[in-house]
């Protein structure tokens, strides 16, 4: 090879080396600026999304409470039974062995003229025991003169919405329809408190009562649910009603005007949140609605993590289906004002707050570690989360000491809710399946699992007394080995027995939630990076979130079944 060729190769290598250096310098110069712009835009979006809660709080406390009419204002005291409107009570249920009898009894005991009250038990049960329990209960109340019947479909098409459609075919003459899920317990005066509001305003499509809970203090999981739902019912729903904005029907503990259901197009079966779908369509047709803050209705919170997640999956994926279905109709309707249209748009897309929370942990926190100039954006996002989510605890004041843990729980559920939102947006098959939330019966006993165990097996002392009596009668000399005596002593210790039972039930129902597990590992790594780069504030925040993701990954929360 000649010298010219060698020099040519050397010059080419020098050019390549110099070009690489120039490119690396350019990237190092431009990358921090790009990261800063991305972080600023994301922080602004993040603050706007979380400002939604502050707006609801302002509406709740700054706007005047609307008055409610009384029963005597719409029905004079001198009226007869025929002056009362006919009300149909619809009780959709499926395999409700634990709660079926309780809700039927509560519905039959409602304070309303019995000749003007019709009760429909819309039973989709496939369990023979549940069918037998419901039939016996309905027959008993029918013998007492209550207008009550069981209606069963040959199929479960349309799930709850399909059941309600089937029931309406038998009550076309009824003016008002009251709906209760199986795990609700209305008080006797529910109708006398709720009916005046819908009777007083002919443009009112439905009235919605506030939920309260029978097992709010059972476990950490039910306490977190109580704080979430109290903010929804005590702040969001009431604030929207005071501001005359759209608020949704919650699926139960409400009274609908039959003509409003028909005017809105009836129940639809193409989403898993038929309540939001119908109430939004009625709102777009110009109907109003009333939220009854002072009318309460007890219900059971899902006590197990699996039951809670199945419920949340439906509640989060369903609104995405409704958004795809009605977003154009919101834009085209002329029956509501522009401000109400904008609020309806926001109402349907606000579930993307979960995506923002996940992206904040996955992207914003690492970027703030690698690019110190963007650290302020990450701190703003962190404190915004702590403040806006923490204010939710104000509406469950007796559990305000759980506020910080509640923030971590909401962040821990963000990944699951994000997956549910994407599933509903892309209309996956999992978002089209209706999974009935398991019911466990009404109880205020926090040790219900131990109670069930004691009911199933008589106590150790009773067993010992039985053995002694039999031994005395038959004069049997029972000899035990040293090892068997030790095991018997251990078995008789109730504390150890309870621990053994806990571990047995825990490992029988063990399930690893893989997404949360992988997220927890990633957050532990980010925690190490944060402390290693002298950012302890961010490190502590991420570490707390990592612990919550770990707890949710292994299911160590709620009741074990």
Give structural notes.
By secondary structure, the chain is of the alpha/beta class. The chain has a domain at 71-306: Alpha-Beta Complex (Spore Coat Polysaccharide Biosynthesis Protein SpsA, Chain A), CATH 3.90.550. Helices cover 60% and strands 9% of the residues. It is built from 21 helices and eight strands. The chain has helices spanning 3-62, 71-74, 100-108, 128-143, 159-168, 190-200, 220-242, 258-263, 274-284, 305-332, 338-349, 353-370, 375-390, 403-425, 429-432, 448-456, 460-474, 482-492, 494-508, 514-532, 536-554; strands at residues 87-93, 117-123, 147-151, 176-179, 184-185, 204-213, 254-257, 288-299. An eight-stranded mixed beta sheet has the order 3-2-1-4-7-6-8-5, with helices on both faces. Helix 4 links the parallel strand 2 and strand 3 (147-151). Helix 1 (3-62) crosses helix 7, helix 9 (274-284) packs parallel to helix 10 (305-332) and helix 13 (375-390) packs across helix 14 (403-425). The longest helix is centred in the first third of the chain and has 60 residues, at 3-62. The radius of gyration is 30 Å and the shape is globular. This is Glucomannan synthase. The chain crosses the membrane at residues 345-364, 376-397, 403-426, 512-531, 537-557. One of its GO terms (molecular function) is glycosyltransferase activity. It holds the Pfam family Glyco_trans_2_3. Its main location: Golgi.
């Amino acid at each position: 090879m000649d010298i010219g060729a060698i020099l040519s190769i050397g010059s080419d290598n020098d050019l390549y080396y110099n070009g690489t250096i120039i490119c690396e310098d350019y990237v190092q110069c431009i990358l921090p600026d790009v990261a800063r712009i991305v972080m600023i835009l994301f922080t602004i979006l993040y603050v706007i999304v979380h400002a939604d809660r502050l707006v609801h709080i302002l509406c709740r406390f700054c706007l005047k409470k609307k008055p409610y009419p009384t029963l005597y204002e719409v029905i004079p005291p001198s009226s007869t039974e025929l002056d009362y409107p006919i009300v149909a009570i619809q009780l959709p249920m499926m395999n409700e062995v634990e709660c079926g009898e309780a809700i039927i009894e509560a519905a039959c005991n409602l304070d309303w003229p019995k000749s003007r009250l019709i009760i429909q038990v819309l039973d989709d049960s496939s369990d023979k025991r549940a069918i037998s329990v419901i039939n016996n209960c309905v027959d008993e109340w029918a013998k007492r003169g209550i207008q009550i019947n069981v209606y069963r479909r040959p199929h479960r098409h349309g799930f709850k919405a399909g059941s309600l459609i089937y029931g309406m075919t038998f009550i076309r003459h009824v003016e008002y329809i009251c709906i209760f899920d199986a795990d609700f317990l209305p008080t006797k005066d529910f109708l006398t408190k709720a009916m005046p509001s819908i009777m007083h305003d002919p443009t009112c499509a439905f009235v919605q009562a506030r939920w309260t809970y029978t097992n709010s203090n059972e476990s950490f999981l039910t306490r977190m649910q109580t704080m979430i739902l109290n903010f929804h019912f005590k702040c969001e729903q009431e604030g929207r009603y005071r501001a005359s904005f759209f608020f949704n029907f919650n699926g139960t503990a409400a009274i609908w005007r039959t003509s409003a259901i028909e005017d809105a197009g009836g129940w639809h079966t193409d989403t898993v949140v038929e309540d939001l779908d119908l109430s939004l369509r009625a709102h777009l047709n110009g109907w109003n609605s009333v939220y009854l803050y002072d009318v309460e209705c007890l219900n059971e919170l899902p006590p197990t993590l699996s039951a809670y997640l199945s419920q949340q999956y439906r509640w989060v994926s369903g609104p995405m289906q409704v958004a795809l279905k009605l977003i154009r109709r919101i834009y085209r309707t002329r029956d509501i004002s522009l401000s109400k249209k904008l609020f309806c748009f926001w109402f349907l897309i606000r579930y993307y707050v979960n995506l923002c929370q996940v992206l904040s942990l996955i992207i914003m926190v690492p970027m703030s570690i690698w690019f110190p100039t963007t650290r302020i954006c990450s701190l703003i996002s962190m404190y915004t989360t702590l403040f806006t989510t923490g204010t939710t605890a104000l509406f469950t004041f007796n559990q305000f000491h759980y506020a910080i843990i509640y923030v971590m729980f909401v962040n821990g559920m963000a990944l699951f809710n994000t997956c549910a939102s994407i599933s509903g947006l892309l209309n996956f098959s999992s978002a089209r399946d209706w999974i009935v939330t398991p019911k466990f019966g009404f109880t205020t006993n926090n040790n219900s699992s131990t109670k069930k165990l004691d009911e199933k097996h008589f106590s150790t002392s009773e067993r010992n007394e039985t053995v002694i009596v039999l031994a005395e009668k038959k004069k049997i000399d029972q000899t035990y080995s040293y090892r068997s005596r030790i095991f018997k002593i251990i078995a008789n210790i109730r504390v150890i027995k309870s621990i053994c039972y806990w571990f047995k039930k825990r490992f029988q129902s063990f399930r690893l939630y893989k997404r949360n597990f992988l997220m927890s590992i990633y957050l532990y790594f980010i925690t190490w990076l944060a402390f290693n780069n002298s950012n302890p504030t961010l490190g502590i925040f991420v570490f707390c979130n990592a612990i919550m993701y770990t707890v949710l990954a292994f299911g160590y929360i709620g009741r074990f079944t």
